[in-house]
Amino acid sequence: MDELDFSTEIAGLRSTFEDIRSVVGIDRLEAEIADLSEQAGVPDLWDDTEKAQRVTSALSHRQAELARIVGIANRLDDLEVMVELANDEADVAAADEARAELKAIEKVLGELEVQTLLDGEYDPRPAVITIRAGAGGVDAADFADMLFRMYLRFAEKRGYKATVMDTSYAEEAGIKSATFEIDAPYAFGTLSVEAGTHRLVRMSPFGAAGKRQTSFAAVEVIPLLEEAAVIDIPESDIRVDVFRSSGPGGQSVNTTDSAVRLTHIPTGTVVSMQNEKSQIQNRAAAMRVLQSRLLILEKEKEAAVKKDLAGVITASWGDQMRSYVLAPYQMVKDLRTEYEEGNPSKVFDGDLDGFIAAGIKWRKRAVND
User: Fold this and answer.
1) CA 165 to each of CA 128, 157, 169, 176: distance values in angstroms, whole numbers, following the listed order
2) Cys staple from 176: which of 4, 168, 181, 230, with CB 3.0 to 4.6 Å?
3) 350 φ, ψ to 5°?
4) Alpha carbon distances (Å) from 38 to 34, 35, 56, 66
5) Is 72 within 8 Å of 110 (Cβ atoms)?
6) Contact (CB, 8 A) for 125 and 224
7) Domain ranges within the chain, ordered by starting residue
8) Chain Cα centroid distance, residue 44
9) Are 163 and 57 in contact (CB under 8 A)?
10) How far, in Å, CA of 180 to CA of 273, rounded?
11) Is omega for the bond preceding 328 within 30 degrees of 0, making it cis?
């Protein structure tokens, strides 16, 4: 067996790792964890359930971020030992394991390096994603459902907590819309580059045989804000509708009117929630998302930067940011960054890391130019 020599690669990774440590600020992170731990240890913390959930969630996020960074330092040390053992024993299997670990560490460091570019005001917040079927009839509803699954798979692969808040099913197939929350450190900053119009080109399984169909779906991404940051909404500005939660094909999955739809009359903003069994819980969740959306609209007006956050998305020709082509060839291409993948099935199964990294770097360059 040829002797392994990863000294140059490991030195480069250590250099990158030190840069990331300095940007993240380990001392600051440890201080935040200490403060949150103290808050979490207060005996009457759970007397205020919402505050307790905010504190424990923030603590969990900070601890996970610190553990990830400390874990990389340990893995780099272990990798050097693995290489040394593989060389001493001329062990082919150990050498293969060391090569695989090197690639894995490179991938994790690459993700962390991209995260250091997320310095926007709301980037650290959880994300609320809404997918809506656009032009294209049944194919568009089916495409929206494909995107819905894609983002849930992305969250699952990364170990992110995903909570479906509302789903409106289409009559024949797919969905009209879906709203879900991804609760993870920097979820909004990471996924905000996915906002925009997505286009699918394929041989339609619903139309005439041998005919290609183009369909569209809109993806909106907003940050879920802390309660302290939300805005007051007069009750007179809100219309509240209650209805029964339903599943595919209109099948009732709830025998009580627990689902809630809030309409902000001045702006026409609508938020529906049916994830919880209690009407009170659904109303509270809907109100929090509505407040987040309205605050973003307010910020956009103040800064005069349309489309910076949720934006206006038409889900039709002329506004698409990514194309998913299944016929006559196979390719997914981001039209902003030019990043592309030749395996759409892999992308639809949640492999979005390349697109997201390219999008974050593209956005950072655009801001700096």
Assistant:
1) 9, 20, 13, 14
2) 168
3) 100, 5
4) 6, 5, 11, 17
5) no
6) yes
7) 7-115, 127-368
8) 33
9) no
10) 10
11) yes
Distance, in Å, from the CA atom of 101 to the CA atom of 58, rounded to the nearest integer, reads 30
297-356 pLDDT tens trace: 777 675 554 345 554 455 554 568 999 999 889 999 999 999 999 999 999 999 999 999
- How far is Cα 144 from Cα 151, in angstroms, rounded to an integer? 11
| Interacting residues of 132 by C-beta distance below 8 A, sequence separation 6+ | 144, 176, 177, 217, 218, 220, 315
Mean pLDDT calculated for residue range 247-253: 52
pLDDT tens per residue, range 27-48? 888 999 999 999 999 888 888 8
Which strands make up the sheet holding 238-243, listed edge to edge?
238-243, 259-264, 269-273
CB under 8 Å to 84, separation ≥6 — which residues?
A: none
CATH number of 127-368: 3.30.70.1660
Phi-psi region of 304 (alpha: psi -120 to 50; beta: other; left: phi over 0): left
Running DSSP on this structure, what letter comes out for residue 136?
S
> In DSSP terms, which residues pair with 130 in a beta bridge?
179, 220
Is the pLDDT at 280 greater than 70? The verdict is: yes
**Token representation of residue 66:** 């610190």
88 burial level (CB within 10 Å; 0-12, 13-18, 19+): exposed
State how far the Cα of 352 lies from the Cα of 147, in Å rounded to an integer.
Answer: 11
Q: Could you tell me the sign of the dihedral formed by the alpha carbons of 354, 356, 359, 365, in that order?
A: negative
Residues in the chain: 369
List beta partners, residue 243: 259
Q: Are 156 and 252 in contact (CB under 8 A)?
A: no
Domain 7-115 and domain 127-368 have a common topology: no
Beta strands in the chain (DSSP E): 127-133, 161-169, 175-183, 196-203, 212-223, 238-243, 259-264, 269-273, 320-325, 331-334, 340-341
Bridge partner residues of 240 (DSSP): 262
CA distance 361 to 339: 11
Specify the pTM: 0.74
